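Hi there, hope your week has been kind to you so far. It would help a lot if you went through both lines with me. No rush at all, and the record is pasted right below:

***
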Amino acid sequence: MDRTAWIVVTLCVIGLILWEVYQAKQTPPRPAPVNVSPGRASPTATIASPTPPAAPEVAPNAAEPVPSFPEKIEALRNSDVELHLTNRGGGIKEAVLLKQVAEKGQRVVLNSAESAPIGAITEQPSASALPEFTVSAESDSAVQFERTTAEEITIRKKFLFQQSSEKKDNFVAEMDVDLENRGAKPYRSADYFVALGSAAPIHPKDYPSYTRLVWCIAGKAKGIDVGWFGSGGGFLGVGQRAARPFYQENIVGAEWVAVSDQFFTTLLAPLTAKADVVWGRRFDIQRPPDQKLLGIEGALGMPGFELQPGFRTMKPRSWTSGSSNWSASFS
């Protein structure tokens, strides 16, 4: 090759190396490995303080075995979306978009039956065993779930659609959570997660980069897509990485967290607090004859709280009143 050709080849190699370095910098930091359960270190430094006065004994949140039980489904519907609510964890198993059509004339369904129900509350987002709730349809526009734990904490979760006099699409539902301590001791909850459900491609040729876990802090959206979990060989050793089983990151004050595909989004927004952790994992979807698509499941993390005997007020951080309000959007 002549001198000009060598210069062109050299510039191409340099450009590829710079591109791989740029891509490596754009990739979010890998979450710290978790041995037993996903923990969350405080993002602030520890500051020494005077010894506080003695506090009353607080009963810890003990893990409960989850016996098997038959699943029961209740439907909640408006003109735009039908929610299939399950007593498994007290959440939304599926959201059927009544005016949106997918392949073969079928309606678009958000969330997978294999994923955690949207709105399910758990200490570990990867937990597959969820407790049984008693379900009751309060009216045509609301469904309530209830259960009492071994610590005599009564949990009530009500799902309802927002009421509006305006004639417009309504893909927004509310989840009101109410806790009551019926025991004799104060109750302390560990940090917990709320499931977002999952998102998956609607069509086989949808771009994988649109299947994402997304969160918003101070009005700015951040996120990762399903490609983040895969391994990469890099270029000349730059940007090489192994496959990653899940994503977890401590954050500061997310207004909402969502999972999305190329066309639709499931978004969960706590209305009385803000999320401090985001979590996600990728899963495979097999379609005949030999197609494999990639979906993503997500959860948002919330700080723990204390609940005194006979009270429904939780403090100090997560819940500022007897109930916590959440908004779920399917669009």
Remarks:
- The two ends are 56 Å apart (CA to CA).
- The helical segments are 3-26.
